[in-house]
Design goal:
The protein has one domain: TIM Barrel (Alpha-Beta Barrel). It has eight helices and ten strands. The strands form two sheets. It has an eight-stranded mixed sheet. Strands 6-10 form a two-stranded antiparallel sheet.
Length: 274
């Protein structure tokens, strides 16, 4: 969805829940220590409607925490986001704990365009069975794509007392229920105190928070497309090859190369994932 009258984002993430049923060390959303919180669409509605006046997104990611823990409200959240017209593509990021019981979630699955499933050590479904189930779901519900991500390492986030200039950041904007957009999940969810932040980062991170209701296309575009002062005090990288050895947290190191390859999915159809 591209509207020249609005600023176009690659993506934006929205929490269905803050908490998770897995306990992954190094979770960049701090979900293992987050309090239980189930969001309804109504909590995001005024902020999404306002943001959609001057911005669109290639896709909106419903995430968390583990979004399928919020079975009661997840469908309403998906439908509500779509109704604003801010995106044509709804993706759900999940650990896939529910895959063997997918029938219980069929009504929800009918409204999801694509999945991002991250495989974690606490997942007890064998890799081959995960591949078979996701292939079946992709066809049954006519989904654009199901992507399975198998990280070998997680990143223990390094924070600095003195600035270390960054050359880039992937940027995963987070729609927050207070009517702001956080530049990334680290800024958005450092409130759960799951990271060993430094004072300079804490003092400056407000620069990475955008007030939707006082915003417009031009100011949001400038805020979105540029690094902020706090970024130079954060050493988080999601890319596996950028994680320093001393900050690597072993994750799926138990898997064989064959098991990882079994779960790999082909590239998504052109233009869908951005």
């Amino acid at each position: 969805m591209v509207n020249n009258d609005k600023f176009h984002m690659r993506m934006m993430q929205i929490h269905s829940v803050d908490h998770c049923n897995y306990s992954c060390a190094g979770c960049s959303h701090a979900s293992p220590i987050a309090p239980r919180k189930f969001y309804k669409y109504e909590e995001y509605m005024p902020h999404l409607e306002k943001l959609s006046e001057y911005a669109t997104a290639e896709r909106i990611d419903i995430t968390g925490g583990e979004p399928f823990l919020n079975k009661r409200n997840l469908l309403g959240l998906i439908q509500g986001v779509r109704s604003t017209g801010i995106t044509d593509v709804i993706e759900v990021a999940t650990n896939g704990f529910w895959l063997k019981r997918w029938e219980r979630y069929a009504e929800i699955l009918e409204h999801i365009d694509q999945f991002h499933i991250t495989y974690h050590p606490e997942q007890h479904i064998p890799p081959k069975e995960i591949r078979d189930i996701t292939d079946m779901l992709e066809e049954k519900f006519n989904m654009n794509h199901i992507y399975i991500y198998v990280p070998i390492w997680f990143n223990e986030v390094e924070f600095f007392e003195k600035p270390v200039p960054r050359d880039h950041c992937k940027f995963c904007p987070q729609l927050m229920p207070n009517g702001t957009v956080a530049k990334c999940n680290i800024i958005g969810y450092s409130k759960f105190h799951g990271f060993n932040t430094t004072k300079p980062f804490d003092v400056l991170k407000h620069h990475g928070v955008y007030d939707i209701h006082t915003g417009d296309k031009e100011s949001f575009a400038h805020w979105h497309d540029n690094l902020h002062l706090a970024c130079d005090f954060c050493g988080f990288y999601d890319e596996q090859d950028k994680i320093k050895d001393e900050f690597k947290i072993p994750h799926n190191v138990h898997l064989t190369e064959e098991e990882i390859n079994i779960m790999k999915k082909e590239a998504p159809r052109e233009g869908l994932l951005g």
